[in-house]
Write a structure and sequence with these properties.
Strands 2, 3, 4, 5, 6, 7, 8, 9 and 10 form a nine-stranded parallel β-sheet that branches. Strands 11-14-17-16-15-18 form a six-stranded antiparallel β-barrel. The protein has a two-stranded antiparallel ribbon with strand order 12-13. The chain folds into two domains: 16-231, Alanine racemase (TIM Barrel, Alpha-Beta Barrel), CATH 3.20.20.10; 248-346, Lyase, Ornithine Decarboxylase, Chain A, domain 1, CATH 2.40.37. The radius of gyration is 24 Å and the shape is elongated. It is built from eleven helices and 20 strands. α7 packs parallel to α8 (179-199). By secondary structure, it is α/β, with parallel strands linked by helices. The structure holds pyridoxal-5'-phosphate (PLP). Pyridoxal-5'-phosphate (PLP) binds at residues 38, 40, 87, 168, 209-211, 225-229.
Length: 377
């Protein structure tokens, strides 16, 4: 694989001490339910291997990812993990790798299950699998209840050892009116005993992701698949079942400070003009790094412990902020694009609002080219 060049512009800091705090907070709330850490997409941009190692280090033994190669990377640093589930694509050709690294694929259809079973028989092994049910998400899995008989039939196939059953919420509405979520809960409740009867034993069950874990504790089952809350988002509200804090900061430096008069045009197409004499800071970071263009003339950065508006359009590699007059900011000063400086904070949910998106996309959108530094390990 071609190595990416580290361009030494901005960098990401991941605070492993906060990872441990978040795990402790979630586990204390869950009690006997397992925390299955969802670390797909490079652990939501935080770095797959370091996060898997840190989580294993604080006793997490259940993991979920989207791809086989991710699962193998987890196994390499978490050799004693009890369960590494691939929620997404697995192919018959992957079966020897799944067996070798003790990885559990989610089986999503009759054809998928039969193909994996045949490959497992050919490899001389028995593959532990979880059956994935579509109770309303309309994405991967056996449509409930129509396709349950075909799911049940898979329990009889040589080559497969059906050990678990799972589903995924399409939505978890506010407490007042959780109708669609209830509907999914009911479908899952009816499906599980039928599959257990077919296989002749109890199945490992998991249903909830972060939001359901916060709002629907009765859906815990054996494990909850926690992604975004582990990284400190969607779980900051006081009085909820658990609270977590963001662990990823994104920083850069001021490259140039320039003193400009009123009416000075900034950036492509001069979408901003200064209203008074002011200082502008040019910062090393741009949309190629995942700093979204939507943040131009909307977002803020922190410099010198203060919020500074991002002015003009975001360029490929540069962002400009208006410092106001006599800011005292110097080239080389640290810029916080996401994180805390002084008593100010900017987090991915704030950036997401400006971009009409969700913190998940902001976090996973930070370029892999940006160096990740791990602190508190
Ligand atoms: C990504 C994912 C999760 C984690 O969701 P969060 O909202 O980040 O907690 C859980 N289950 C499935 C199937 C997923 O794809």
């Amino acid at each position: 694989m071609a190595r990416m060049i580290n361009c030494d512009g901005s960098w990401v800091e991941v605070d492993l001490r906060v990872v441990r705090d978040n795990v402790a907070a979630i586990r204390a709330a869950l009690g006997p339910t397992q925390l299955m850490a969802v670390i797909k997409s490079d652990a939501y941009g935080h770095g797959l291997t370091p996060l898997a190692a840190a989580l294993a280090g604080c006793g997490v033994r259940h993991f979920a990812v989207a791809y086989v190669a991710e699962a193998e990377a987890v196994r390499a640093v978490a050799p004693n993990a009890e369960m590494i589930v691939v929620l997404g694509a697995t192919w018959p050709a992957d079966v020897p790798r799944l067996l070798r690294s003790r990885i559990t694929p989610a089986v999503v259809s009759q054809a998928h299950g039969e193909a994996l079973a045949a490959a497992a028989v050919a490899a001389g092994g028995e593959l532990p699998v979880h059956l994935k049910l579509d109770t309303g998400m309309g994405r991967l899995g056996f449509i409930c209840p129509d396709e349950l008989p075909t799911a049940a039939a898979l329990t009889q196939l040589p080559g497969l050892s059906v050990q678990g059953v799972c589903t995924h919420f399409a939505m978890v509405e506010p407490e007042r009116k959780p109708t669609a979520a209830r509907n999914q809960v009911e479908k899952f409740k009816q499906a599980v005993p039928m599959l257990e009867a077919a296989v002749g034993r109890r199945l490992y069950r998991h249903m909830s992701s972060s939001r359901a874990a916060l709002l629907l504790p009765e859906c815990d089952h054996d494990a909850v698949r926690i992604g975004i809350a582990l990284y400190g988002y969607s779980a900051s509200e006081a009085g909820r079942r658990f609270q977590t804090r963001p662990i990823l900061s994104w920083k850069s430096r001021v490259m140039q400070v320039k003193r400009v008069p009123a009416g000075f045009p900034v950036g492509y197409y001069s979408s901003y003009r200064t209203s008074a004499p002011t200082d502008l800071a040019v910062i090393s970071c741009g949309y190629t790094d995942g700093y979204q263009r939507h943040l131009g003339n909307r977002g803020h950065v922190l410099i010198g412990g203060q919020r500074r508006p991002v002015v003009g359009r975001v360029s490929m590699n540069w962002v400009t902020a208006d410092l106001g007059a006599n800011s005292g900011v110097q080239p080389g000063d640290e810029v916080v694009l996401m994180g805390i400086q002084g008593d100010q904070a900017i987090w991915a949910d704030e950036l997401a609002k400006h971009c009409s998106t969700i913190p998940y996309e902001i976090l996973t959108g930070i370029s892999r080219q940006i160096e990740r530094r791990y602190i508190g390990g």
